[in-house]
Write a structure and sequence with these properties.
It is built from four helices and no strands. By secondary structure, it is mostly helical. Helix 2 packs antiparallel against helix 3.
Length: 141
Amino acid sequence: MNRIFGRGKPKAPPPNLSDCIGTVDARAESIEKKIGRLDAELLKYKDQLKKMRDGPSKNMVKQKAMRVLKQKRMYESQRDNLMQQSFNMEQANYTIQNLKDTKTTVDAMKVGLKDMKKAYKNVKIDKIEDIHDQLEDMMEE
């Protein structure tokens, strides 16, 4: 039947939380670089404005600086949003890891309890009491 209908595309594995965190962090770094370039551009415009006299050319430079400033604010907003997403995913990842660790601990405790029960069955309390009594008798003599 596969020859007639063909095979479906293999399903992609579900997204891994660590991979998503890395992707979001990389995008945030990319936006951070853009913000750095815009800062340099704003500094350049600021220096130009200091040297210029009032007039239409100064107003044009102000408009360019305002456009760059709006872009910078937009990028900062996007970066903050990405950083919040990354933080939320890291919190979820931490919680998942903590639950896995707790499960491992509980499993180890169950195995330990079984071993203790087996060992306790081998210990005869009557023999221990007899030995203890004999030791006390020897100490009294």
